Sequence to fold (225 residues):
Amino acid sequence: MPHTIALVGGTGPEGRGLATRFALAGHRVAIGSREAARGVDAARELAERLAGHGVAADRVTGGDNAQAVADADIVVVVVPYAAHRATLEGLRSALDGRIVVDAVVPVVFDRGPRPVDVPAGSATEEAAEILPASRVIGAFHNLAAEVLLDPDAPVDADVLVTGGDAEAKQTVMALAGEIAGVTAVDAGPLRFSRFVEGLTILLIGINGRYKAHTGVRIAGLSDHQ
Fold:
């Protein structure tokens, strides 16, 4: 079933990359930003790039974050960690009852990527504390934005999905599996999100050293998918 998916803070590379892949999979996407004009511009640019790939222009829209989430049944949060709490607090009531996928990595850059200590344990767990009436799931952290942004590039990676809401987790895993080349892996409860986020920081460092766009593959699960 097609979804309407909002990308909160979606004007950056990761947000636009995920929007690209969701649109290619047949979903409607809404790109949000703190500034409505930036969301509109990002959506227009994305729609133009995808026009030759069978994506109708009206399936990609943009605006401010509140406008983006208004009609969405799935909301993916891709803001920088520094804006994480304030953004979610500002959208709390609008996100009641929604599936909220937190893809935020608590990282700062100081001669390379460095983890940020999160009192809740992880950005995803922090999101669950801020949004008690939302169905919070962790996913999409470890997909390289550069690969996602190129609609012709193959994605060769797994998506590690964390969360305690079984139905919401299955919905997100199904969504991840619609990205060509991606396999969704149930990575356990929300408290394991810290390991997924930490692994992503490790990948950022590896990619920087090798000038590469690596991902994660979990071997040995073919008989269990």
